[in-house]
Amino acid sequence: MTHKTTAEVGEFGLIDRISAIVKPTLAASPGLIAGIGDDCAVWHPAADMTEVASTDLLLEQVHFDLLTTPVKHLGSKAISVNVSDICAMNAIPRHALVSIAVPPSFPVEMIEELYRGMEAAAREYGIAIVGGDTSRSPSGLVLSVTVTGEAEEANITYRKGAEPGDLVCLTGTLGGSAAGLRVLTREKLIMMEHIEHNEAYEGSIMADLKEYSGAIQQHLLPLARLDIVRFLHERRAHPSAMIDVSDGLGQDLGHICSASGTGALLQENRIPVNSTARLIADELQDDALGWAIGGGEDYQLLFTMPHEEYQKIADNRDISVIGEITPKEQGILLKDIYGIEIDLQSLPGFDHFR
């Protein structure tokens, strides 16, 4: 079977192929006037709504490795991480703009798979992919995704707004993505070692390891917690501050506290650590709690709430109370199971430049 490259189909041939894949998503936007095909996408914002927007840049060998990441999964994740930012503002995502840069030798079939992953994620969240751009890259795949969303102005939630006495709440579990990445990295290193010594590699980067599948999926196919945002809106519950956990619990809580001018005290025994991450940590002789606090890329929602607001959502078993906001001078601390308080800011999180 012959695979065509981007150089063979050309820019406009590639755009035609991409447009055909994402066209079904346009039905998700009744306010859309013009999508792909004009210089700009055009839509009517809903009445009495505030617009929000987020953009994210993904570079090969910085944010992903195509040896461990199927391109369809990458496409889905590229949409999800931006939708997660919209959710972190307590808003509903509406539209996406996607730009890519690829080498001329890049197979067109891989780009189509990339966009099929994006289209699947767009359907999951009910958003429309309305445009973007294509360009040539001298080395590696580059993705830029922008997602817009909307919410009633009263519902928009910032990182600022937390006050002493507010509860610190978290959705889902943490550490799964970091654990999944460790497994994938291990498989890659084993494979590369076999190749270096001209030995047959019997395993597979995407080996069907059932005991690891939950963590691997959390890393490769994270889901933005749009379900929680809709739940908060249904219950008319208003967080005082919110962020998504992309850089690690400690670092992202630090962003809330810095913006709000507060401290925080978390309880170690209340932090929900992914069960598969615990299994992997035991096998690799590593620390699952460390992955939960500093691993990042879990894309759960971390938010604060006054006690009376929390009572509106207390029956949701997917939301855990893990601590409380404190005065700034008390610092941002974690109380471990022995009652010892540890400075959370001393624990590592993700930083693009470190």
Automatic annotation (TrEMBL):
Binding site for Mg(2+) 3: 39, 85, 244
Residue sites binding ATP per the record: 115, 132-133, 159, 246
Ligand binding (Mg(2+) 4): 39, 54, 85
Residue ranges occupied by any PurM-like C-terminal domain in the UniProt entry: 163-331
Domain PurM-like N-terminal: 37-150
Residues binding Mg(2+) 2, per UniProt: 56, 85
Function: Catalyzes the ATP-dependent phosphorylation of thiamine-monophosphate (TMP) to form thiamine-pyrophosphate (TPP), the active form of vitamin B1.
Name of the protein in its database record: Thiamine-monophosphate kinase
Species whose genome carries this gene: Chlorobium luteolum (strain DSM 273 / BCRC 81028 / 2530)
